[in-house]
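In this section we walk through a basic example: taking a raw amino acid sequence and producing a predicted 3D structure, encoded as discrete structure tokens. The instruction is simple. Fold the sequence below.
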Amino acid sequence: MTDTPDISPIRNAVAKNLGARYRAELRFRAAGLAAVATAVGILIILLTSIVSGGLPAFTANELVLTVELDREAVDPMGDGSEESVRRGSYSRILQDAMRAEFPEVQSRGDLRNLFSLYTALNATRLMDDVLEDPTLIGTRYDFTMPLADDLDLYLKGLLVEDRTLDTDGSLTVAAEGDTVTVRSTATDFRDLAAEIARTLRARATVLEVEADSLAALAADLTGTDAEDMLYDAELNRRRASDIRATLEADSGPLMLDGSLPSILVETGGRTIALTSLARDGATANGRFLLGNGSAEPTTDWTLYVIDTPAERRRVSDQLIVWTRALEARGAISPAFNTYLFANADSREPELAGVKGALYGSILTMIITIIISVPIGVFTALYLEEYAPKNRFTALIEVNINNLAAVPSIVFGLLGLAVFINAFGLPRSAPLVGGLVLSLMTLPTVIIATRAALQAVPQSIRQAALAVGASRTQTVFHHVLPLAAPGILTGAIIGLAQALGETAPLLMIGMVAFIADAPTLGLEGFTQPATVMPVQVFLWSDGAERAFEARTAAAIMVLLALMIGFNALAIYLRRRFERRW
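The resulting token sequence is shown next.
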């Protein structure tokens, strides 16, 4: 009787190998999940940053002024003609309405500052309203216009750091000439005085540290460079010494300048900007920014502190006070920013919109679709179904594949050389932009169409030919309908890529500033225009801070268009998809 062989070593080896395989599979799954989670996380961060940055651009603080459309000012020729209405003094009408809001403003400098609450381009918008409805002439009209961009950011809390402090004591206001003295029965100013003192001490410390750093750097230099650094170091030490001497003095107020937070006292329709604080916080001196005159003691007052110093912001205390006063009167209110979609580009951020770029993108994509899709599909049909397989067709296929990898800016150079310089087509026109993007999109459409045609089983072709169909009938009645989902998907994805291109359009002049939207018609194809990606590029380079939000908002509009294109591709694929 033979002994039973011991297979435990084999079983152990198999179990060990299986365990290693299972662990490897778990590691692979974990790596895959980590990769997906990383991609989703990055996408969420990207979308969150874009949406959070762009949301402020979808709202606008609007100023409503009741304007007197006096017939002599609006219709100087007196005949009611369009030429006469266009000669009206609309800027003066708006200025008179602003003066009526703040009659105490008299000096030329203050008036110029007051009129900066809105952009002068709104006079043209008022003229357009009168041209659209001539019955407004001779009436009082509530004209709505966007607030200046910096003040709009202020009301949205994006421009300065500020706070409103409650008060405990009774306030007394005593005016003597241009100087206003305010006194509180409680210690309302004491904490602010201590805060200002701490800020000054910190500034003195920073100046001393900078002076020491400059002196250390100067020790390693010679000549004028060393002398300049030593001079700056000595200047910083003197400034720090002056600050500490002021703080250590037994008497004298703490002076407030543009490098310190602004402190405003608001009471009874008056606003006083403090210029100095007593060390004990009992009294303060200032000047009127709104209203005037002495006042009886009152407990209805607040302290409004703008922590961002005046020298570090684009709007003055005076503009902020006027804006808050108009908001309190109900003349300023937030609303949906229709200007973002109703206007073309503008030098003024509050009037800038995407209408011109959106229309330009539509017209450009129409040309791209008309040229690239039919030519690309028929080229792929010929190469796949009719062309003989020889060296010439192989060379064509290689070149098509190479063209798909060519940088997009090369197509822009080609369009500049051929369509503009050789053929004389208008620069910065949707016609030229569509032609350039068609050249860029053609290889993608051809490759996608050929892949879709190759996916159709040969048995479909053989069956059609077997029942007597011609080659053309087989292709157009059987092969092409079955390949339609793949063709449509590839074509739409290629067009979506073209919609987001910027570099080739920069070469043909579509980076120009376009103040008027092109016409959605045949004449619009040759009118100057820009497109959404270029608009994003232009706004991202804008100097005003308000363009940051509009840049993100334009990106959101562009993403919505591209998501729409891809959603259309998915729908068409499922709509025409067939199984075999």
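Looking at the output, two observations stand out. The CA atoms of residues 118 and 147 lie 5 Å apart. The radius of gyration is 36 Å. In the next section we compare this with other chains.
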